[in-house]
Design a protein that fits this description.
295 residues, three-stranded antiparallel beta sheet, alpha+beta, Arc Repressor Mutant, subunit A, six-stranded antiparallel beta sheet
Length: 295
Amino acid sequence: MKPFYQKLLTPPAQSVIIFDEEKPHFTVPWHYHPEIEILYVVKSSGTCYIGDCINSFNAGDITIIGENVPHWWKSNIKYIDGTIKDGIKALIIQFNKDIFGADFINTPEMSQIKDLLEKSKRGIRFNGKTKEILGKKMLKIFRLKGIHRITELILLLDIMAGSSEYSYQSSLGYSKLLNSYDFYRFNKIHEFLVTNFTQQITLDDISRVVNMSPTALCRYFKKHTNKTLFTFLNEIRIGHACKLMIEENVAISNASYESGYNNLSHFNYQFKRIMNVTPTEYLSAYKSDANMVTE
């Protein structure tokens, strides 16, 4: 699953790419581009991959993804097989940071936004009240044209930059890999783990993929991500298990097995370590939130 380079075409007489995506399901696989992207999921759910992060997404989520960061929004299987027939809807803004110019982006007034664009190389998802405010701003931007659209985009970025209601999606180590040769080696490891995480994987299996000794591989991975290989593998597996339990109503024991665990006790241990709650508590909290939304 090597990310492919996506060439984006900016419309004539515009500096920002903006489109309202409505289709049966998300179709663009693991990819990257030099443009910064802001994606607002109006209607859909599924799994998103950003750098070395795997996470679920739902309607209302807003994420900013930095330049050249590989990402993939993968729709719930119910959208892909047509069980959910009304499709997905997402508002997407893409722009090159150079649209602001070196002089403007370096002004004191733009310092927070400049910092935001650098941090976005880890992928940033917003939550709480900020998410609601950003959603309304996105809708407003799509109604505007010309300089008014650019002005509103700057205000949107300023709200993002000033908010504390956010979470990084990928690790700091991953963002540092993006502009180095090591990114390609790391991507081979990432590709192997994401493709094979439901199987039993040994350190020797991964070592052979990148032609490194197990000791050198462990040292390399920990240096660049500040986590061990198997911590990363468990995060992928637990993220997939969450998706199965929430989106497909798979029982906890079955989600454990389908995510690569042969031992339920070990699955429960890893789940609690990564999510800070047990699988049962996680499901209970999700159902409680879902009920609040529908009331």
